[in-house]
Amino acid sequence: MKKIAVFMLFGQSNAVGHAMPMKDEDIINTPLKNVYGLNRELNQSFDTKELIFTGYTTHSMNLAETQDNTYSVANCLARRWQNAIDSGEDLPNLYIIHIAIGSQGVYGMWNPKRERKLIPGKLGECDISMYPLAIHVLELFNKFVKQNSLSPDYIGIHWRGGEQETCEPVSNLEGKLKETYLSIFGGMREALEYEAPIILHRMPFEDVMMKNDPSGGNLVSMNYINALFEELAKELPSTSIFDVRNAPFYDEKIWNRNIFRWDLIHYLGETNDWVASEILKGYKNNY
């Protein structure tokens, strides 16, 4: 069986790489040789019977929102992975599954109880039931692996979400939110028929939470969600937390902490590229 690496990125705007367009020299138009993704035109449907992977480019590879050529973690990891192989490093081919839409949390388009709907387009135009789409894609990926006699080495299910639920009072989150996350991640693992690692990205948005709600309600909700992530990491097997505050350039003395755009909630391209470098480093250390 041929070994492959598999990276999955799900969530909302910080999983999209929102409003962080790539410089021309970083855009990948020529499909990569050793990194593969799911082109929207070929795979963004509930009617597909099999997945069609093509050489990775930095456009059309997010199966949800149409916002291409951004410094998303997926795009940054794809480039770093191919560069590592081109430099002679012994790495398997990488397969990327990316599904994310800005401003959509687990009570919105990620709601596991939401009926199937798929209206493609840009943020504000698209309306996609992302949990059933993710399950459909992961079930087809499991089929793809078996049919092609592949041995997947799962880098993990990376979850970059939670921001939308900070707008909810804690009373709307208690109990219900944990149950929702357990349903989402349990469903994903069931679709894969494998206990793939789950990596929950901690939200470090203390400043913007207070700016949006000086009374502190948003901050309280964010702290509750981050604490829930920690709880899930302890209770669920093969589950961990990724904290971007560990970046060597993170600086609490700088107004944007040296990791955010002006809005203090969307990461800089350099931040996402560092996250990708850490993911690659972690894989190589365990490979």
- CATH fold topology: Rossmann fold
Described by strand count, sense and barrel closure, the largest sheet is: 7 strands, mixed
* The number of domains: 1
Number of strands: 9
Which architecture name does CATH use?
Answer: 3-Layer(aba) Sandwich
Under the CATH scheme, which class?
Alpha Beta
Strand content: 15-25%
Helix and strand sequence: EHEHEHEEEHEHEHHEH
Which stretches are poorly predicted, pLDDT < 50 over at least 5 residues?
Answer: none
The H-level CATH homologous superfamily, spelled out, is SGNH hydrolase
Helix content: 25-40%
The secondary structure category is alpha/beta
Q: Strands across the major sheet, in which order?
A: 3-2-4-1-7-8-9
Average pLDDT number:
96
Rounded radius of gyration (Å): 18 Å
Distance between the termini: 17 Å
Shape: globular
Number of helices: 8
